[in-house]
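Fill in residues.
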């Protein structure tokens, strides 16, 4: 879900599709020509996933995430995903937090610790009833489209994207797959300039 759309704690389904999008400039031009409205400017996100020592959240397909940007922080719970018509759906609960460090301390007190970090640079556009996120990540560029399934399909077509190329995986799962293919990648999905690029074998 977008940071721009985050409000007080609530429960709802996240309904979205992720597609590879090497040409973000082209997508940006297409969005503008279609009358899309900018929802949030390009910004950097740091996302930390938390789990207990047994990794029970991950094993259940759920996630507990603390997202930090220059605008603040958001704590999010996501339930196990399900798929309908090629679109991913999952329960989502989230709320803004005023003090990320205090939230980290609370999570630690509850037996949770960071299990994975992933970074991205994101901008968001509103097209019709859909929110379109353009993401630059350490493993490539992607577009995420969130909204009603029928609206998502219409937006995919209008932007010239291929619905058949939809990726059913989260960024953590995509990165885990990438690490199996390419040795030497750091444990976390971070940009090179944001810390030591250590692998697990090097003590990362």
């Amino acid at each position: 879900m977008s940071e721009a759309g985050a409000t007080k704690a609530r429960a709802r389904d996240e309904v979205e599709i992720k597609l590879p999008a090497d040409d973000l400039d082209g997508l940006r031009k297409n969005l503008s020509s279609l009358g899309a409205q900018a929802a949030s400017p390009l910004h950097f996100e740091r996302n930390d996933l938390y789990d207990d020592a047994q990794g029970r959240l991950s094993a259940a397909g759920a996630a507990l995430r603390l997202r930090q940007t220059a605008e603040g922080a958001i704590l999010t719970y996501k339930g196990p995903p399900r798929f309908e018509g090629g679109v991913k759906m999952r329960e989502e609960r989230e709320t803004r937090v005023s003090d990320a460090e205090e939230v980290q301390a609370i999570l630690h007190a509850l037996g949770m610790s960071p299990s994975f970090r992933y970074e991205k640079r994101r901008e968001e556009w509103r097209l019709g009833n859909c929110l379109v996120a353009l993401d630059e990540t350490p493993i490539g560029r992607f577009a995420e489209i969130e909204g009603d399934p029928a609206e998502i399909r219409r937006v995919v077509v209008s932007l010239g994207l291929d619905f058949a190329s939809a990726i059913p995986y989260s960024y953590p799962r995509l990165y885990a797959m990438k690490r199996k293919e390419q040795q030497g990648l750091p444990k976390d999905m971070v940009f090179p300039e944001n810390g030591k690029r250590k692998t697990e074998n090097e003590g990362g």
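The mean pLDDT is 90.
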